[in-house]
Amino acid sequence: MLFFLMLVCDFLRLYRKEVVPLPDFLYMGKILEYIQQSGKGKYLCYKTKKLSLDSNDNDTIAYNYDDNPVVQTTKSIFAETDRSRQGVTSLRNLLNNNILPPPIFRYFLDGSRHTYKVDDIAIGKKIFPIVAGQVIVGCCERHDRDTFKKYDIKSKLVLSMPDDFDGDDGRENFCRSFCEGLNAEISKLRFISEKGLKIEKLLLYRTDGQSQDKEKDNYKNRAVAQIQYEMVDEEQLLVAQLCKENKLDDESWLIKDGSLEYNPRFSNLEPAQWNNLRANYQHVVGVSKMFDPELLPDYEGNRLSQTIANLKPFERTKVYRYESAHSGTSFAVWYLRLRGGNQQAQTFRETSFSDIVKCELVLLREGQLIDTDIINVISANLIREAYPVCFGSDTRWANHLYPVFLTESFCKSHYIDSNVILSLF
To answer: Is the backbone peptide bond immediately before 388 cis, with ω within 30 degrees of 0?
Structure first.
């Protein structure tokens, strides 16, 4: 069919002397063509099979977690003002109050990315993967029970390539210049220009030494990691935007889907810029559906995982101080069971951790304690956000907060079809 269309266009050109442009899709693959030509003979693209690199993992326990477990022989230090030696706190009294105060959470943030292996490229005597990615970070805003809308969304296409591709070691200047030239070339296609598609950023992954994760130390994973770093950076920049516009305060909190434990080594930002972003998290709660139950011991040095698994409906653990070995940042960490003891919750609970979430606050001062009343109000509000449920729409429904589920769905709705992305290469 493709060959037939080209013959028809050639016939019209030659015999009717008409200017008949070829359909745009016959020109797809322009990006790899531009990459090879930009090397002036130094690069060779192999036109290997293109494939998606994403996989879904809906397990509750994060077996391959990034946080650094505290030595189990030590005792955890309380990070809340109530230092009574009790393992758990029940929130039923707050939830049974007939006059409930307005919800404190107004903003909901989620980041997502898709990655694709689009080709292999030979540079010198080595062959490296070329990985493309879609990065989406979105934030939704809720004014009242009837108003849930977009606050902002950041969507970009990025390209992750080996640092050997930058032969002159120009770094930022090289990456910017390359993207400008590439986008100028592909924008000539009507389909590209109409859709406003472009490569926002060229990311370079290291090709020497070893990565932080030796078990997954290969070029493909390094390429994907650069795209992950870009997504995490966009999350932090969006929080900074909210603070700059004075959107967050004691009555307007943000739920960030996932941990707040960012690693400065896993970032594409300048160190000074990254360090300044920590001050924006005073009114941000990180809520993780996947977590390491062995992260902390309790105040007596026992395994906290047993306390977490034995949480009754609407109970939380004590709040403990956790210091990240990656950044030196301290966090207030506790675990909360979201669901009640009704038959449905018990029937569909897959494990003892299925409806428990890990909650985090950033401790901005040395020795800071979070007021226990604030922790209880935050926890009660998180339980309220778990209803209604998204049962049937997401296999992780038991750990989901409904507005976070809506924000995730909103972000995913902005993905460009994978077939379109792959056809560009």
So the answer is: yes
Q: Token match 């940042």: residue? A: 329
Global confidence as pTM? 0.85
- Written as six digits, the tokens of 187 are 């924008």
Q: Retrieve residue 240's tokens.
A: 């900074």
Query: Which H, E and C letters describe 168-189, residue by residue?
Result: CCCCHHHHHHHHHHHHHHHCCC
- The rounded distance, in Å, linking the Cα atoms of 365 and 376 is 21
Q: Where do the domains of the chain lie?
A: 32-417
Q: Splitting the chain (425 residues) into consecutive groups of 10 residues, what average pLDDT does each group show?
A: 42 40 51 86 85 63 45 78 91 80 93 94 91 96 89 95 83 90 88 86 87 67 93 95 96 95 86 86 95 91 91 94 84 92 56 89 92 95 88 76 93 90 86
- Is 78 within 8 Å of 301 (Cβ atoms)? no
**For residues 340 and 50, is the Cβ–Cβ distance under 8 A?**
no
Handedness of CA 392, 396, 399, 404 (dihedral sign): negative
| Six token digits for residue 364 | 């901005």
